[in-house]
Amino acid sequence: MSDDKFDAIVVGAGPAGSACAYTLAKEGRSVLLLERGNSAGAKNVSGGRLYTYALELVEPGLFERAPLQRKIVREQIMLLNDRGATTVDYFDPSFGEEVPQSYSVVRAALDEWFAGEAEAAGAMVAPGVVVDGLIEENGKIVGIRTGEDEMRADVVVAADGVNSLLGQKAGLFPDAKPHAVGVGVKETIELSDDLINARFAVKDGEGAARVAIGCTEGISGGGFLYTNKGSISLGIVFNPEQAGRQTRHIQDIFQDFKMHPAIHALIEGGTSIEYGGHLVPEIGYHGIPKQLAREGFVVVGDAAQFGINTGLIIRGMDLAIVSGLAAAKAIVAAKQPADVGALYRSQLEQLLLIANQQAYQNFHGIFEISRIFKEYPNLANDAMHFLFRVDGKKPKPMLKGILETVKRNVSFGKLLADGWKVYRHI
Amino acid sequence: MTIKRFSPEELLGLDRFEVDEGNPHIIVDKTICATCKGRACLVACPARCYRLNKEGEVNFEYAGCLECGTCRVLCSDGGVTSWNYPRATFGVTFRCS
What we know:
- By secondary structure, chain A is of the alpha/beta class.
- Chain A has 14 helices and 19 strands.
- In chain A, strands 1, 2, 7, 8, 9, 10, 16 and 17 form an eight-stranded mixed sheet that branches. In chain A, strands 5-4-12-13-14-11-15 form a seven-stranded mixed sheet. In chain A, strands 3-6 form a two-stranded antiparallel sheet.
């Protein structure tokens, strides 16, 4: 490179940006990693679970250096109604063996570490820099502007997150649409490891991840809970359009969830230490822009709207890392900047990111069934109530009682229609 | 603070902000909001930056903004006329999310 030009400028030191910068630096490329927060992670919020395979793809064993929280060995699904909760708890120690499948993470720690790895590998890392715009010459992106300064590179990698203002400025996609994102709110609650271990039946270093439905006042969305080291991440992701059409503030609905007796018992004695809000790409494959690159420019991670939400599996950071890696490999393989776009696309396919997105491509359609978020969780709890209730009176016949319970919550016609809809979308 | 139902002020009080006084990163045109029927921002902004004042107008306060982009995405009538990130070193800093 010449003195005043980098091989690549990566904008945003989240998992996508740092994976890209780390890989490029290791390949001996000159790379500048810019971050608008005072440190990497300072502007980031996520639920917090990272599927480990993505770090393994970047470099086997890399995860062992990362400040990960607890390896997840309990997968839990919670169905709430006003009164109580039905929780399915799947314990699978194999998820924690060898390279554990996933870990809870805290972004301030994770992102700062990953940016540090990129720096140690030779990337120039500059936090506290907000990129204002792109430099375009002869139809190509050739650099970025920040305040009065211009910085130039063969390729600009936009890892600037779900709101990707740069992707928009580059003309790759129009303004974000509300149907394509979820709005998440979250509290981080400090709680001793002893209490976490006892309440979630896990050992030191092991943890639980929980999704919850029935906590959104019927709005499409769901709650989440992750156990960290010495803290719990608790939050809800809402469909913003539906949230906007009703009258209760999402903060209030979230506080109801936190204070629900079945949740409160898990966090009691803890201390809330942070509150966050963030958008998440929500509709998976169909939300990914058709064009992910133009000459001198690629988008990665949330900026490219990569994300998978099956209701049980929620993925973003792993896809971000894989896409950052794909972009880096494309840049390394390209003979000229014009080749990067096609090579990036083929790397996304080789690394199976596209196949993963496609496998769940219609799942978000399931979340259009409004009854999933209120009637069905209520039905589950009603049924449990009927099955476990003993009061000395003459019990109802089992079948009659169950049918009555179902009918109280949903008509059989709707039940069939919803079943068919789920079948079609998976 | 122990576990209890938090007011909006208590929630934002958990966070660290460096406010860029006199330099809002989001510009809202109240005259557009005045005729907006949707006003989804009032219930969906995680920081409750958008509130109705006594006159029933939408009031925007950027000081507690979490920089999430919900208003940018949700604003239906164009009342959010400009949306940017705060200048370097300003805005929210998350330490344990």
